[in-house]
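An instance noted here:
***
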Amino acid sequence: MKTRKIILSLLATSILSTGVVAKENEKVLSLSTQPVPLSTAVSDEFYQFSARVPAANVEAMHKNIPQTKSDWKAFINKRDTAAIQAAKRLSEQFGTSIVEDNIAGVNVYWVTPKTINPELKDKLFVINQGGAFMLNSGLASTTEAHVIAHFLQMPVLAIDYAKAPEHPAPAARNEIVDVWKALLKTRSAESMVMGGSSAGATLTVLAHQELLNQGLPTAAALYIGTPSVDMTMTGDSRYYNEGLDHVLGTWRGLTGAMVNAYIGDIDPANPTVSPINGSFDNFPPSYLITGTRDLLLSDTIRLDRELKRAEAYTQLNVYEGQSHGDYIFALGTPESTEHYQALSEFMYSHLVK
């Protein structure tokens, strides 16, 4: 019995000592230096996709940052030119039609699928394209709209909102709110859903916080794909997925510079740009998606938790091995198809009652 007490005493001392050491070093924990192989817990198609995509060059992302207005303009034009061609190819692939329009002084695109579900012909999906608050203007703003229109078989409206660096926050959010207000003149809020991926997801959340602040009707449901909800360097995945995320690579560097251009002089913790610090009372039902290698995995999880705390209904989807927005880039893989089918069912359940 005495021996048992001594052992238990030693164990307790050891645990307490370890706790003290961990507490003292909690801010300097290091990740393992072991190499991380591609996940094999995915479909063969997604594995082959991952094998073809080059790893993020984190070092280059820290160095190759535009410095002047002309540098940024060239950076944006190069990427938007390629993105416009990609959007055109998606339109051809899915047989969607595009009609340019202007609503409340904002450039928009009506994207119509080849086949429309009769129950959704009078419904509308308002989409905010991603692009780090800076990229994907013009026809490039319709990229995910084609995918949504095809899989959900419903009309889509893509908002070509104002972009940084010429138009810092909250210009983009305000234009989305203005378009929504104009749509409410001819449609009911219950007949519309809203969403997007990456920056588009963030702006969807910000726009709805502003709509609620103004006491305006909100969408029947939201699609929130891998958002950045905190503009400070906060969240575990911003650290442990650095380099593993082959899309964003790192928050510190090019991505951070783009975010800084977007937030301008606003405090990065201000809820005007960091919706995680705002209110989620009375938020619509929300479908969220992220991946285990997504730099913004923590952002998505934190948002899901805040929505649940506010008693909003959420459906959180976390995919093994996926980087930021891989469900878009890996179109045709079982994982991507599964996601868009699940999104279709989610939106249908909130639009058709």
